[in-house]
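Subject: sequence -> structure tokens, single chain

Hey, anyone have a minute? Need the predicted structure for the following. Not urgent.
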Amino acid sequence: MDNHYYELGLNSPWMNAAGFGGYLPQHNSDFPTPVGGFVTNPISLLPRTPSLTRNVLPYPGGFMLHTGSPNPGMKNVLKTYAKKWTNLAVSLWVHLLVTSPYEVQTMIRQLEETQSVAAIELGLPPDADAKSQSELIRSAAGELPFYVCVPLDRAEPAIIEKIASLGADGAVISAPRGIMVEKGKCRQGRLYGQALHPQMMAALHRLRGYNLPLIAGCGIFSKAQGEAALEAGAAAVQVDAWLWKF
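Reply:
Had a minute. Here:
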């Protein structure tokens, strides 16, 4: 197993996924392996309230979650946590929720002035077309390395090549979106669970050989599954709902 995670500024290939750790890492002696990086909850430029249609719906092998990514906004997050981020023992990655190049550039400029931030994780709007996504990715280029979240169901060679050409330092293969029916109504959300692991492994094998670091960002529910993803070519792994067991 190659130590590609060193190239990402990590001292271990294990991280949490955005939305599964808050804004400040918490010490947890029960976590099964040393953590090399911490990813914040998603942060938007302006505050966001919870979705009116938020839900948690189980399916065999996992669940679908929709929250609307509520958060206090960049200004308030920095006011509360910037000083607390100083001298963290792990690499700090800030996950950004963006809808326009202006938002990307505004937030990244603020983070470039926050010395403790090691990298940016860019979450793209699920309804953005290819041109809009390209503009968002291109606008993230700056002093900080940045990694683009690509949903598992869209992790194809053409997407990875495009991201690399736009200057990204890597891609996070993140939780895919799905639709479930509840009481006769279609509900949307992100899919989580160990049932996604075979698809994650297939994506890593499909994307072998492309000159862009890949982070396995969903479907990891055991140390063995994480190690299998690393053997398959992932530079690092991110743990989401598995953290809820500790």
